[in-house]
Write a structure and sequence with these properties.
By secondary structure, the protein is an alpha/beta fold. It is 32% helix and 18% strand. The structure holds S-adenosyl-L-homocysteine (SAH). S-adenosyl-L-homocysteine binds next to strand 8, strand 9 and strand 10.
């Protein structure tokens, strides 16, 4: 049996440690001197200078680097591809040590802003099989470990030479199906001397894992939760998002309403996928109006469907604008999301497209933009 001091016990990955945990780990490994300064220096090397290995940490002397190497592991994802898209976003593909592949996307904010969002994956593949999403077609390979989530941000920011200001868990996978690793990774991202991303700038998007939504509230997780409504008609949503067979529509809406109350009745964000001839009808307006009468406040984030497979049609932006304008009489705040990276299949729901070789054209790509 391995004791905690056994040389066979695996070393903790550096990207899974908070600043305080790193300081404790280094102390246990024999760092007697100004130990918290060593922890700070290591955090700066990893997260600010984006140094790729312990040996390359130039601000730390050789003896202390050796101590560090005895105390922690510093595993890295292998970056396989970097593809810039015409709209300024960039898709990154990474290979994991067991051969699984994941993707992340860097999304710059408007011109002149120095804010940059990194969209991260929480699982290799996904088990939710949402019918409009490419990742669902891959099936689930496995959950990511916390360091594999943190390292996506470190590598994306380093490659682009930017500081990540916002994180969205909207890449491959269902984050609330991998809660422990997701919260650990998110917590590491908030660390001072590290990435220093405010907890409220870390957004976790869920397809509706209802018990995990309640746990998020009960444990007072400091991050932001947003909800993939898909569409507001329960029967259609069930077709689009089979997760509803496990966690019913009413249960999901009740969990969202509880979250809204927990957040002091601030608007919660519901993500809506606008699919031509499917979620953009009169009945869909009526279903949304009914939802708006339920008594919790929400903002509808409308995402025009990005082409995946042959089953559904993508609308043009003009069609989406015309449809959303019909929601105005109901006093519903609506935000149209321009999904970045569409020409590189890095838009919402398209991650993994390259992996299954299903690139498709989008109607808006064939018309000149105003
Ligand atoms: N599993 C999580 C996070 C990944 S999906 C979740 O379901 O929330 C992130 C967002 O992209 C979701 O709101 C989803 O509805 C949306 N999305 C997925 N596929 C899409 C597609 N093909 N076109 C537009 N949006 C899509």
């Amino acid at each position: 049996m391995d004791s905690p001091l056994s040389p066979l016990a695996p070393l903790p990955p550096l990207q899974e440690l908070t600043h305080a945990e790193l300081a404790t780990t280094l102390r246990a490994a024999g760092d007697e001197g100004a130990r918290s300064t060593l922890a700070e220096a290591v955090m700066r090397e990893v997260y600010v200078r984006a140094t790729g290995s312990i040996e390359a940490m130039a601000s730390i002397g050789a003896a202390r680097r050796a101590l560090l190497a005895r105390a922690v592991a510093f595993p890295r994802l292998a970056c396989e591809a970097v593809e810039p898209a015409a709209d300024g976003s960039t898709r990154f593909a990474f290979r994991l040590r067991d051969g699984a592949r994941i993707e992340s996307v860097l999304l710059p904010h408007h011109a002149g802003s120095d804010r940059h969002t990194v969209c991260v994956s929480s699982q290799a593949g996904c088990a939710q099989v949402c019918r409009f999403c490419a990742t669902g077609r891959l099936g689930l390979t496995r959950d990511l470990e916390a360091w594999e989530i943190v390292d996506q941000v470190v590598q994306v920011a380093a490659h682009a030479r930017v500081r990540a200001s916002d994180i969205v868990f909207m890449g491959m996978g269902e984050p609330l199906a991998n809660e422990v690793a997701v919260y650990r990774a998110a917590r590491v991202m908030t660390q001072s001397h590290g990435l220093q991303i405010g907890a409220r700038r870390i957004t976790i998007s869920t397809a509706g894992v209802v018990p995990a939504i309640h746990r998020f509230i009960d444990d007072a997780q400091p991050f932001r939760l947003v909800f993939s409504l898909g569409c507001a008609d329960p029967a259609k949503r069930r077709r689009l998002m089979p997760i509803q067979e496990r966690h019913g529509f009413e249960e999901f809406i009740a969990a969202i309403a509880r979250y809204e109350a927990h957040r002091g009745h601030q608007h919660v964000t519901l993500e809506y996928v606008a699919i031509r001839n499917f979620t953009m009808g009169d009945d869909d307006i009526a279903a949304l109006a009914a939802l708006a009468r339920r008594g919790f406040r929400f903002l509808l984030n409308v995402i025009p469907f990005n082409p995946v497979g042959d089953e559904f049609e993508a609308p043009t932006m003009a069609e989406v604008r015309a449809w959303t304008s019909r929601l105005r009489p109901f006093g519903l705040p609506v935000k149209l999301r321009f999904s970045g990276g569409r020409d590189r299949c890095a838009g919402c729901g398209q991650l993994g497209t390259g992996l299954i070789g299903a690139r498709r054209r989008h109607p808006d790509r064939d018309v000149s933009r105003p």
